[in-house]
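Lab notebook, bench 4. The sequencing result for the construct came back, and we need a structural model before the next group meeting so we can plan mutations. Quick request posted to the team channel:

Model the 3D structure of this chain.
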Amino acid sequence: MDRRDFLSTAGSLLVGGAAMSFLGGCTNPFTPSSLKAGKIKESYQTQVLVLGGGPAGVCAAIAAARQGVKVMIVEQGGALGGMATLGVVAPFMTCYDTTGEQMIIKGIFEEIVDRMVALGGALHPSGIRHTTCYSAWITAGHDHLTPFDAETMKYVLDTMCAEAGVKVLFHANFVNSVLSGNKAVGAVILTKGGLEAVKADIVIDCTGDGDYAARAGAPTEFGNPRTGRVQPSTLFFHINNVDSRQVERNVESKLHTFHKRDGVSHRALHWHVLKAVENGDWDIARRSVNIYKGVRDDEWAVNTTRIARVDATNSEDLTRGEIEGRRQVKMVMDFFHKYVPGCKNATLKCTGSTLGIRESRHILGEYILQVEDLLNGVVTDDAILVASNSVDVHGRLSDNSTEYITVQNGRWSGVPYSTLVPQGVENLLVAGRALSATSDAAGAVRVMPPCMAMGQAAGVAAALAVKGSTTPRNIDPTHLRKVLLENGVFLG
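Done. Here's the predicted structure in token form:
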């Protein structure tokens, strides 16, 4: 097959969604004849291409642009923020150390929080303590959370990207990786105008599922190789018109009954869930309801639906999961109305427009983060963030189970830069929940504040690579850490 025939075939396969590595090995995959043969327009050229506008991606884009390079971010939805906005996941989990004394995830994350607070769209984590209505009355690992409003966050992220000079493209789906040999040189995307190509010096994969890395041929693992499973998914939703005083009194009168049995948590409203189960009104694989009070007094975020065995890389599975999630939302709303004091008149404010995925692919990077690293408070010389988030593993012991282990030694642990650098592919970084980590270790750092810190580090690293005419694999981690510190990141 000559080059023209190959490109024409590749263009046809791309329309069908084939997961082949597009243009791998071509000397110059962006020649006009190549793109014409493949019926793909070379519409964009940038220095740093960020795929995915979620918590990691938006911070990566802002961080890179602030270093003076040209940045483009491609997002399949209509807003930035990913799970924080489109998925309505809230609040942000802790950004403090294990003692609750010091804020340790800072940088762009802190700036976003401060801007939302100034607009009345968030409560600062300094005043939000564990074992309160804002933390679902959970103690371990739930100190200093950040309630926030998704609509405020959308506006703040739009503003910050505009200020930094980031080119934002919504309603654009990543289709395939563009490689020259083993080097990432861009991507094919699907827009309303058809298939288009983006040429880039460095690509940052913030798709959450490691889609670019996988299609580029980087090695990955799916879920937990030992069990063959992924953690269950959740469709978040928010309720309002709640008599919050009644809810708070009801739960706080029963705090002494909170317990865990056979790996299953019995926390907020578990006494009502028991009655609902007995009456045939509850079939969800949970035995309590995680409800987090929001910024406004009558609003609560609900993290209770549980959908097992969803492969986030498969559209059929995602469809099944989202339909099942909405069925469970209806069941929980009926439960609130029938059983929970203060919720008789509660209304469904919104559900996530996308399913909350805890786990899918993990890249195999230069280093694979281990759960022992986190629990023992290990901070390596190339750490690009420190965090105290607990190892949170759902559904391993049973569909109902949750394992939750806090950092055991020290006030925080580190995430090495080498966990963002995939094996086998150059000019590529991966930030967010698809980082190089074991399934259990990823359970700690997949939450939004660490992902945002990963994104900032990846963005700075990509910019340094562009300006230094080198690859992300070969930048000096000491220099990277120095620039991160200059930009407000806390590294211990």
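The chain is about 30% helix and 20% strand.
Will bring this to the meeting.
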